[in-house]
């Protein structure tokens, strides 16, 4: 970082990430120092960190079926726009590509926004792997998205990607009940057996059967293949969910927690992803709300062809699961910033393979400040200062000392037509008390940066 600081003071247009230097360009680059600092944390690899413990738990459960999944956990976060978007068939104008949502390093490189960025590569890697009818992979990694600031949002979180494919063999052509079909049936039975062993029953609500028109199947798969593949996908994800939540429920029963659920309720809903069809999301009912856990679907043939498979050679599924929110509820971590804490009082509470409840070590009072401003007159469109741009300014100045940022007021002056916004910034440290003077300094810096970068007029 010393070297990097030297570069930035000399205004050499480079950034260094994971030991590699990348050219920046003023039109595109929006990755910041505070984000770059997080690129070598690899929390998912720490075996005594909540995210690492959860990753390990899920990997073990999935591979307990028949050890099909090859594991890839060391991909670095810088990827190309090709890998993150084009390889998956994202249209050129997809909102996911926008600078307001994605951290770009330059025109061609960015911080991956999802683990799907490595799907193509992993499909290639497992292609000539074995003669097995069934193969697959799991990828866990940190992913980056420009977003709001509050207790459940952080610009970096973790995902696990999973995929399974079955090979249609030559001998299968024209046969009524081909070998791989029988294999998929057997694979479904295996997952179901494990599901039935879980101690709390899982209730599944699925109104995505039969397939709706807005979530169509692909031409190259038969109705039977779609049916079997999606059954295997859904049961496999339900197995993950019931493993994780059963562990939690068992410990709640042991601790006689009064909000212990008696059953585990999940539901399937239709979804859309450019590289799967049909596509779904699973949600779990937890403490009064539906929690979105995972997106998934049957892999589009285009992706498999790009990875070098022959037409109609394979069929299969993929999913992408968010780890942080599950880790937070599993370990009872009240603020997502804690996952990034380097405080011993946090880290010593967790150990490999154990699900334990986090005991808050202190609660330091927060202190809020409002920033109110008029948007520049010649730019009446509020997207000129995207909300995520404001979040980045605050993050860069105050880092993890900011707990949340909320829009508390916005109005347009009836005569002049000028627009005014007011945001409330809550400053609060997880480790110590902040002084008023310290908070004022941070707030002053935020205000002047906002004026300088976006020519707003403070009110
Ligand atoms: C994806 O990222 C797709 N790549 C998932 C996928 C993979 C679909 C393979 C099909 C096939 P999505 O943006 O919905 O989808 O994110 C997936 C999961 O990541 C969500 O269900 C959620 O659990 C988690 N997630 C998304 N955004 C956040 C966030 N800001 N903070 C924490 N977790 C998040
Ligand atoms: Mg989603």
From TrEMBL:
Gene3D superfamilies: Bira Bifunctional Protein, Domain 2, Ferrodoxin-fold anticodon-binding domain
Reactions this protein catalyses: tRNA(Phe) + L-phenylalanine + ATP = L-phenylalanyl-tRNA(Phe) + AMP + diphosphate + H(+)
Family annotation (Pfam families): FDX-ACB, tRNA-synt_2d
Subcellular location(s) of the protein: Mitochondrion matrix
Coiled coil, from the record: none
GO molecular function: ATP binding; phenylalanine-tRNA ligase activity; tRNA binding
Enzyme Commission (EC) number: 6.1.1.20
Top-level enzyme category: ligase
Top-level taxon in the UniProt lineage: Eukaryota
GO biological process, one term: phenylalanyl-tRNA aminoacylation
Keyword field: Aminoacyl-tRNA synthetase, ATP-binding, Ligase, Mitochondrion, Nucleotide-binding, Protein biosynthesis, Transit peptide
Residue ranges of every copy of the Aminoacyl-transfer RNA synthetases class-II family profile domain listed in the record: 141-360
Gene Ontology cellular component terms for the protein in this record: mitochondrial matrix
Residue span, FDX-ACB domain: 362-459
NCBIfam families in the cross-refs: pheS_mito (TIGR00469)
Role of this protein: Is responsible for the charging of tRNA(Phe) with phenylalanine in mitochondrial translation.
Family to which this protein belongs: Belongs to the class-II aminoacyl-tRNA synthetase family.
Name by which UniProt lists this protein: Phenylalanine--tRNA ligase, mitochondrial
Species the sequence originates in: Saccharomyces cerevisiae (strain RM11-1a)
